[in-house]
């Protein structure tokens, strides 16, 4: 019953291929130094890439990117076909149109239960002013509504 934002976490493999997945387990950890966290299932096919890579990007999705969130959540799908992205400072794909992006150094990892918690040190952050966020709650997507 906890509403969250929706992100796509991206990285490049050692061979330079883009990897990405939908995650809503994203939180701020610290302002000084700037740290964020997200978690990934121990069963995820991309776990080895994220464990060994040095940098990744967290793309906070905008309300008009629901289809991307769904696509990057599917197993075995061609996630990158037709997706517009640019390489970040350290090469991680930055998804065009995202509400915000956090480019992170893969600072630490913690095995907890059936997930790995990744803590990233934010090296660069950008945002799209006025972009409404994509939200997830109770198995459905939403966007913001002022109270």
UniProtKB/TrEMBL annotation:
SUPFAM superfamilies from the UniProt entry: FMN-binding split barrel (SSF50475)
Gene3D superfamilies: Electron Transport, Fmn-binding Protein, Chain A
Alphabetical UniProt keywords: Monooxygenase, Oxidoreductase
GO molecular function per UniProt: FMN binding; monooxygenase activity; riboflavin reductase (NADPH) activity
Keyword Oxidoreductase belongs to the record: yes
Keyword Acetylation: no
Domain Flavin reductase like span(s) in chain numbering: 1-143
SMART domains the UniProt entry points to: Flavin_Reduct
PANTHER family per record: FLAVIN REDUCTASE, FLAVIN-DEPENDENT MONOOXYGENASE, REDUCTASE SUBUNIT HSAB
Family membership: Belongs to the non-flavoprotein flavin reductase family.
The protein, known as: Candidate monooxygenase oxidoreductase protein
């Amino acid at each position: 019953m906890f509403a969250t934002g929706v992100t796509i976490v991206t990285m490049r493999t050692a061979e330079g291929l883009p990897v990405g997945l939908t995650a809503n387990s994203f939180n701020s950890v610290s302002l000084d130094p700037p740290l964020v966290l997200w978690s990934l299932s121990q069963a995820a096919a991309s776990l080895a890439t994220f464990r060994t890579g040095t940098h990744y990007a967290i793309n906070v999705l905008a309300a008009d990117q629901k289809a991307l969130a769904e696509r990057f959540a599917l197993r075995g799908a061609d996630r990158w076909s037709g997706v517009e992205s640019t390489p970040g400072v350290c090469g991680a794909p930055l998804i065009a149109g995202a509400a915000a992006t956090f480019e992170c150094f893969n600072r630490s990892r913690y095995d907890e239960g059936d997930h790995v918690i990744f803590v990233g040190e934010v090296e660069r952050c950008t945002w799209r002013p006025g972009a409404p966020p994509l939200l997830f709650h109770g198995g459905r997507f939403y966007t913001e509504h002022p109270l």
